[in-house]
From TrEMBL:
Gene3D superfamilies, A to Z: DNA methylase specificity domains
Keyword set, alphabetical order: DNA-binding, Restriction system
Domain of life: Bacteria
InterPro entries on file: Restrct_endonuc_typeI_TRD_sf (IPR044946), Type-I_RE_S_subunit (IPR051212)
Name this polypeptide is given: Restriction modification system DNA specificity domain protein
GO terms, biological process: DNA restriction-modification system
Amino acid sequence: MTSVQTVKFGDICREVKLTTKDPIADGYERYIGLEHLDSGSLKIKRWGVIAEDNPSFTRVFKKGHILFGKRRPYLKKAAIAEFDGICSGDIIVMEPTNSFIAASLIPNIVQSELMWEWAIKTSSGSLSPRTKFKLLAELDITLMSNAEQIRKIKVFNKFDDVERLQYDVGDSLNLVWNTLYREFYSSSDIAPNGKLRDVIHVLQPGKSVKSASTAARKTQIGVLKVSAVSGGFYKPSENKLVTQESEIEKLQICPDKSDLLITRANTPQLVGDSCIVQDKFENVFTPDKIWRAQVVPGVDKYWLLQLLQYLRKSGMLGKVATGTSNSMKNISQSKMLDIDVYIPTALEQEKIGRVIKCLMQLEQTRESHSSSRSEIRNRVMEA
């Protein structure tokens, strides 16, 4: 019986430290911030344009490099660069050393539970914990035979094929969403006939409490982050642990099934984001930055959700938001409820609501399949 051989992560992957003082002059057009990386996905689907946003980033990455989010590693943000650009200082740029383990397997090691558990363990800082490459480099990685590496590469290639199809499905769903926006709300002959307060009675904020940077387990109490409200979907795992009894006693609103939630404070692009709660999680509560909407009886919540998403994506909510910071904007309850909107008949609302609910169910199914694939990827990596 042979003992298991290991190598350090630093033996199979190294940090890349390229910088630029003038990214546009050096030929770079796009940049990546942590907000552009999706948790648990190696695919980059969003980016910023340097000429438009003028970011202060100086770190350079090249196509094929691995981008690893060192800030708040519990968010599990890492991806493969598909173009050259610059990125946030909160992102570690890595590349395989082509030693011991095939380069094509390295991204899957980086996006594994083994790596994230180590990154979380080695991170420091209470509000915004960060890890470092020199700490990640100390992680022990099981050394695989060439035959085993080839087998795993073939399996992961099949996963990649399926994920490409899933992205195509996602693009098609986005096309349908955008068509619905134009069909339901953007027509020039639809004039406002009411205010948002005509369909929402009250906006109830949660409470601001002291919390940890890590998420609460099922047996613990957590306060939701604004990222728990995401493009129509409720993500209760996006929460922060609350341990002090005096702080727990302040928490009042535990979102119930079918509740409509709205963020009153968020980034300029996401302020006013909304979602409908699909299932109740007894251990998480709303913060002061998330409203629970008391909807007028008879109003279709899925129609209202689509209206709120339209108001956000069209920039109408951003226009009534205030704040000097470019990273966080706020909307007051009075300004929110005073927005002019078009309110269709109850029958029209119901028709629109049915379509929205069906599309959301399709998207949830797609997300569920994606989560299952991530879990299987981890098991293959560990096998």
